[in-house]
Amino acid sequence: MVAKLYFRYGAMNSGKSTALLQAAFNYEERGQGVLLGKPSVDSKGRGTIVSRLGVTRPVDFVIRPGDDVAGRFADESAEAAERSGRKVACLLVDEAQFLEAGQVDDLLRIAVRDGVPVLAYGIRTDFRTAAFPGSRRLLEIAHSLEELKTICRCGRKAVFNARTIDGAFTFAGNQVAIDMSTAGGEVGYESLCAACYLLESGGELGDDGTGDPDRRDRSIELELEHGLAATATATAHGARGDA
Fold first, then answer.
1. Options 29, 76, 82, 95, the catalytic residue
2. Residue 132 and residue 175 in contact, taking contact as beta carbons nearer than 8 Å
């Protein structure tokens, strides 16, 4: 049976890193070796995978821009086999959205040519709802796609990742900004459903490049329109019921 490339994706706070660490534990509990990797772009935790539950584990190798991932895997798996006396049974990659498209192609080659399953975890889209290069390629070529779910503040399923600076939503800026304090303020993220995202963005999807200060005003207008539409619908239903 040919090994597969799996892409397990979800909005932020959907437990991706926790699921990866659990998968690694399951393999090792059965006496099978694993390798863990992540892109260097993810500076949080540096060479460590950090779950929001507080569980951490060092990665076996960090993937830098331009790296030959298939070559790195061959070297690392040979060293791991020499140390432990067992072959690597699985490669697990965290924050896979930060990989380059060609590096994702290497993950497929590892699965198919080397016969080693590859489990890649990441988010689909950035805070402007645009796909990350790594995620786009994974969605195109992975054998298996699995969504890890989390909920929005309203209780619906969260699908987007909204960025905040000092607690205020922002919809303009660089694609990558890891949770951290910067000169511009404290960068954070919140997982939102489509409805809440549109309310916060004033109905906009994507970055229009203007840094439009009127977006919040449009957000309020959209919320009012939504409320008026709901009221009108309820009134219409009541009128039909009276008839």
1. 95
2. yes
